[in-house]
Specification:
Elements (H helix, E strand, L loop, with lengths): L1 H12 L11 E9 L4 E10 L4 E3 L13 E4 L5 E8 L4 E5 L4 E7 L1 E10 L3 E9 L1 E2 L8 E9 L24 H4 L7 E11 L2 E10 L4 E3 L12 E4 L6 E9 L2 E6 L4 E6 L2 E9 L5 E8 L1 E2 L8 E8 L6 H29 L8 H12 L3 H30 L3 H7 L1 H18 L9 H12 L2 H5 L1
Antiparallel strand pairs: 1-2, 2-8, 3-7, 3-10, 4-9, 5-8, 6-7, 9-11, 12-13, 13-19, 14-18, 14-21, 15-20, 16-19, 17-18, 20-22
């Protein structure tokens, strides 16, 4: 709960940060031999002016995250007491509205250990820093110390680079936490014709990291946000759409279910291009892995738009669209002819033909009745399709035809009909329904044909 509250606070604060990566703390690590098998492990922090690092001992979990040390379990190492620290400065902190203990400029934490054999002692420290107006998200810094019973000289710890052999002050570069850059952005445009263009914001995400969606519940991390420069002669068409595999899982950093993308994702915005040749703006995003989150980052963009005339492309597009409609019509017509050969339809052809020939006094009347019959079938199916689309939306018929439950129900219906056809039982309609249908068909004319 404590990490959740702090990450929320720092995320809100970073909405005002213009993408700059702040790194106000430099850590160095070394060890000092006390006895043949005892060492003092020293964790030294050097802070930039104006920043302060919080003590291990804070009055409440409702405040910032205290500096803490996690040591890997090792049978070769025995910790002698807890991590010690110098006397901290205690003052009122406006960021959290309480009195807090912290260090400025520099501080050294010390852990005394005893070893039974040569070993590498590893762990991780967590810390948080603030200045007078904002706080940075908690940082996690791994460390390791090479400890040896045989050596009589001070051994120096490793941070993120190889250790040096001399006992000298460790340089800032030797212990500087790794700067992560797990997301690579690229921008492109696609001419859609008629003066419209599709702007694509493509993100390539390193393995193990995830980029949050635009739609994140309150109290969670910073969602991906797009801000387009004002005063541009472009018209936005709709909102930014997300194209990629969206995951929704429990996020341990924020203790809630969140939507995010892994691997890659494309955000797309349609625009009606005007006289400006550039499309400008900025995007803001936040990434996390299973253990930590990086501060929100802002990326500015200026995308060159195509200024070529669209008339020829529009004509070509219309031609292709017209050819597409003709092709669909021909394919549908041929498919209908093939449907006549199916076992459900082919046996009905003689019955239908005999119905019109027996009730018609002449060949011309029989043909006209058959044409009316076909028109009525078209009207019935078009009417049903129109009503379904009008009531349930344009995708309703496609969802019904491809839906799992709909097809499962029809599967069982056909199985029941098949068993009935084999003589296991007989399915009959109510006699009143049958009599009404026969009476309507015997009337002849438009009603009977319908």
């Amino acid at each position: 709960m404590r990490k959740f509250i702090l990450l929320l606070i720092t995320s809100l604060v970073f909405l005002q940060v213009s993408g700059q990566i702040l790194d106000p703390v430099k850590w160095t690590f070394d060890s000092k031999r006390i006895d043949s098998d005892e060492f003092e492990l020293k964790f030294k922090a050097k802070l930039d002016m104006g920043w302060h690092l919080y003590s291990q001992n804070l009055p409440s979990d409702d405040g910032p995250i205290a500096t803490s040390f996690v040591f890997d379990e090792s049978d070769a190492v025995e910790r002698l007491g807890e991590v010690t620290e110098p006397k901290a400065k205690t003052e009122y902190d406006p960021n959290f509205d309480m009195e807090l203990s912290y260090f400025e400029n520099s501080v050294e934490f010390v852990q005394r250990v005893k070893i039974s054999t040569n070993t590498v002692f590893k762990g991780e420290l967590t810390y948080m820093v603030c200045d007078a107006s904002k706080c940075l998200p908690p940082e996690y810094v791994p460390y390791s110390f090479e400890l040896s019973i045989k050596e009589a000289e001070t051994s120096q710890a490793e941070s993120t680079v190889d250790e040096t052999e001399e006992l000298a002050p460790v340089s800032d570069l030797d212990s500087k936490p790794e700067i992560f850059d797990p997301v690579s952005w690229s921008f492109s445009t696609k001419d859609l014709g008629n003066g419209e263009q599709l702007i694509s914001f493509d993100a390539q995400i390193d393995e193990g990291w995830h980029l949050y969606s635009q739609n994140i519940p309150e109290g969670g991390p910073l969602p991906t946000v797009f801000r387009f420069a004002e005063g541009q002669d472009h018209e936005l068409i709709g909102k930014v759409e997300e194209v990629g595999e969206l995951h929704e899982e429990y996020d341990p950093n924020f203790m809630m279910d969140l939507s995010f993308f892994s691997g890659k994702v494309s955000f797309q915005q349609k625009i009606k291009s005007g006289s400006d040749s550039q499309f400008k703006g900025e995007l803001e995003f936040m990434v996390c892995d299973d253990e930590k989150c990086l501060p929100p980052e802002i990326v500015e963009f200026s995308i060159k738009l195509s200024s070529e005339p669209m008339l020829n492309q529009d004509n070509e597009s219309d031609k292709l669209r017209a050819k597409g409609f003709v092709g669909i019509f021909i394919a549908g017509f041929l498919g209908g002819l093939l449907a006549l050969l199916t076992p459900c339809v082919f046996p009905m052809i003689p019955l239908t033909v005999s119905f019109f020939t027996k009730q018609s006094k002449s060949k011309a009347q029989g043909m006209s009745n058959a044409i009316l019959y076909g028109i009525f079938i078209i009207l019935i199916y078009v009417g049903l399709g129109f009503m379904t689309t009008w009531i349930f939306g344009p995708d309703a018929l496609n969802e019904i035809s491809t839906g799992f439950w709909f097809n499962l129900i029809f599967f069982f219906m056909f199985v029941v009909f098949a068993i009935s056809f084999f003589g296991a039982f007989e399915i009959t309609l109510p006699s009143s329904w049958v009599n009404k249908a026969d009476a309507a068909s015997d009337k002849g004319g438009f009603i009977g044909i319908f």
